[in-house]
Amino acid sequence: MRLFWVWGDVLHRGKPWLILWDTGKLLLAKCHKKRVEAARKIQAWWRGNLVRRTLLVAALRAWMIQCWWRTILHRQHQKLQQSLLRIYVIQEESVVKLQSWVRMWQCRQYYCQICDALCVFQPPNRSLVTQNKDTLQVQYGVVSKQPEFHIEILSI
C-alpha cells in the first residue's frame, strides 16, 4: 500500500486540505480533519484568552487612571473648601471686630453724652456729684434712643 500526500484544490472554509491518494482511491483523511478542527478550536480559545487579557489590562489601567483622577479632584475640592472656610472665618472675625468697635463707639457716645449732661448740671464750684461710700452714682434722666446702662465705679 503506497500513500502519497498531495496538495489538492479542495477548499474547506477557505483553507486547502491534504488529500490522501491510496492506490487510486481518493480518501479524505478524517484524522487530519479532526486535528485541524481541534487546532482551530485551540487557536480560537487562545486568541480569546489573549483578547480578554488585553481588555482586562486596558480596563485595569483605565480604572487606575480614573482612581487617580478622582483623587486629584477630591484634593482640589478639599483645598477649595479649606480656602473658602478660611475666607469665611476671616470675614466672621472681621464682622465681630467691627460690631464690637461699633458697640464700643455707641457706648462711648452715650458716656460722652452723659458726661456732657453732668457738666451742665454740676454746680459752678466744680465739686463732684454726690459720692456715697466710694461709689459714684449717676442717675440723671437723660432721654436717649440708645439702650440704657448703669455705670458704677468702685475703688478699692
UniProtKB/TrEMBL annotation:
InterPro entries attached to this UniProt entry: IQ_motif_EF-hand-BS (IPR000048), IQCF (IPR039887)
Domain of life: Eukaryota
Coiled-coil ranges per UniProt: none
A single MF term (Gene Ontology): calmodulin binding
Protein known as: IQ domain-containing protein F3 isoform X2
Organism expressing this protein natively: Heterocephalus glaber (Naked mole rat)
